[in-house]
Task: structure prediction
Amino acid sequence: MESKVYVLNHSGHDLGKAKRYGTLEVLTSGKVNIFSTDRLLHELTQKLKDFNWEEDYVLLSGNNILSFMVARILGALGKPINILVFNFKTSDYVVRSM
Result:
């Protein structure tokens, strides 16, 4: 099975380099109502139900509350999460496991 890269929020940036890590799965797009947290938490939980801790990645993007929610959802099992962080100096992604 191919790895997936769960993109927290896609707002038009070029994510081409992230495709090296797997198929892109966009969790939210554009402007997100961060004040509707119950609905947002439910939607994110549903979209992350097939997350594979050994193979998949989370690409940090968008509002910080999205990062917090995804960490809450995936962190519940206490397993490390593979995170892609964009390094502006190298114009590439760096993998971090937390």
